[in-house]
Fold these 4 entries.
Entry 1:
Amino acid sequence: MEGKNEQRAGLLYGVGAYVMWGLVPLFWPLLKPSGAIEILAHRMVWSLGVVAIAMLAVRRWAWIGELVRDRRKLGLISVAAATITVNWGLYIWAVNNGQVVEASLGYFINPLVTIAMGVLLLGERLRPVQWAAVATGLTAVLVLAIGYGRPPWISLVLAFSFATYGLVKKKVNMGGLESLAAETAVLFVPALGFLLWLAATGKSTFTTGGAGHGFLLAATGIVTAVPLICFGAAAVRVPLSTLGLLQYLAPVFQFGLGVVYFKESMPPERWAGFALVWLALSLLTWDALRTARRNRALAVKLLATAAAAPAAATPTPDGAAIPPGAAAPPAGGPAAPTPEVATTPEAATTPEVATTPRTDAPDSTQQKIT
């Protein structure tokens, strides 16, 4: 019963995280007349404050000393901070400039871009269905480019920056809260410097926009940290395959807001492009679920074989065990040679399974949707 309650709580945390990420386009327009760069700087500064409070609550500080001493990991954190800066900044700009639908496309195609990067950069091999999904995704981009009259550069930059961010985070291998704390700490000084410069030149909207506007800018830290904390709570309670399905909630909500609430135009060729993207994602999801079931069944079979082999062995008068199917030697005589029998899963022959990059959740990638 306790396990079911934990999974139910994890599912609620996961749904909550992705729904919040999906509804965040409603928040950024409230921050006008602040520009995207100013909003981004406030997001970096206030996020560090919120994350620091969360770190105080959980009392996890040992990782800081380890990170400072590890120059390679510190360098990777700096790269992750740079890529998420591009992602966050462009997303805010897109929402506040009437490009919510194209921004949502970036997170729809992100799993496909992640797979492509896994093949090109990590040498991972794809199964036929995955190749079909990637090819369908490329076709969708071409159709959308025709529909827009230009390449969907907002979608592509968001997808590639977030896929790069996920790849770097995989190399860093830190928890979500610790990683966000490290990234915002790297970005804090330049972001604070930019905000101070705006204030010194009279261009800051934090103080001139009134108390309500200043409060909303400070709330960017909460908007950033709370969904990530919910995602972290979900990641330890539900299977990754479940998170992989939940991740599509965010772009679905964003797309719906763009079409229904912001009333962005959707000509037929744009619908055709999105339909191809959704087809590619359906193929990808079906293949991932099928492969996960196959691997689980194979693991159960190997464990059952390993457990049955020693249990079926027959003791002899001198205490030696005879594998199943071997003849027992006569009393007092030497044991007859017996064929070697594999007694562990590693010794059994298993079908080769193509490795693929993880397409289920943000960083963990799971990926967090901004």
Entry 2:
Amino acid sequence: MVRALARLAPADVRAAAVRVRPARLDQYGITLRFEHAGRSHQEVRLGFGKVVRYPEEVGEGIRGLVVGRV
């Protein structure tokens, strides 16, 4: 799932990354950390189409990002 979400980040951020990890998740979206060679990294925020109010809705929010319903 992280790989699918990473494709939504800008191409230049993706191209330089050696690893991608989820960094944060809240009711508004997910933040991915793109780690680069050495010690540098960049974070990209992907917002859900609507506020997630309950834990059960997180999967729906992430699926919406992956299939383009943002």
Entry 3:
Amino acid sequence: MAQILPRLEGLLAGYRRVILYGFSMGAYAALKYSGRLRAGVTLAFSPQFSIEPGRVGHFDHRRTRLFHRPELHDGMQIVPGDLAGRPCCSSTPCSARMPATRR
């Protein structure tokens, strides 16, 4: 993301309105980078709230074993300062039972 964000910022600078959307990991990224990309609206379907194993590893082991790189993923939870515009989230009933999504 460190390499692509400046390119996306340059590309989107020519647009008056930016809308981001995604599902699952893509929804996470849309929310996480909505502020940096000046999104007016972000549509997030079943987003993850973090990809950091220290925050989700106790209930979500799907990607930790295969993809975790501490130098890239630690501190990657979505925080209020990441958000811009109007974030709109939709989640499945299953995700509502996960402890981390009740916050």
Entry 4:
Amino acid sequence: MTMSGYKLRSDETKILTCTQARRCGDDREQACVELTLTNRNLIYVWQIRKMFGKGAEHEDVYPLSRLKVLDGVVQAKYAEKNDLAVLDLFFATDEVSFVFETGDKYSSRKLVAQWLDALSQVTTGLPSSQAAELRKTIPSVEMLAGAIKGTLDVFAKTFTGKTMDSQENTEEQVTVKCIGCRAPISGRSGMTIQCRYCDTTQTLK
């Protein structure tokens, strides 16, 4: 598997990718080809815009081993610029920021939350609390989650006399590592779940 000229190592797995991210501070002529997160590196592939044809592709690699972690929290932060979400990353010797140009602030925030979670899972093994807070500011996410849970509660109570919350509490909750990318996966024992980071499917035991 390759990303432009970058070749994954034998122990390296692609976790997340985006073509709508642009590195802050770059010239406007520098266009994003792809931003990719693996279990070892962050890779930014870019090219110079040309009137005709495509320019040569370049890749800048940021090792995750150099990404700062303080008190068990990865130093990846959310910011906002011109109504678009920005991901600020603090490495040992420098800082780099990416703006997610999706066209509206809510879809932009959703992408940053996804990247915050993925970076936190890869570096610390835990989801990002900042991502959870950011998702609360996205109306469609909160409304959809609430609507789905309310509907499920109605059906659950109708047929079992219990809400989803009370049922979940009586079933064994387990946390295992994804067999693909080793990220933590949680759910009820016996459930078949697809990893949100690498799309690997496995049954929880």
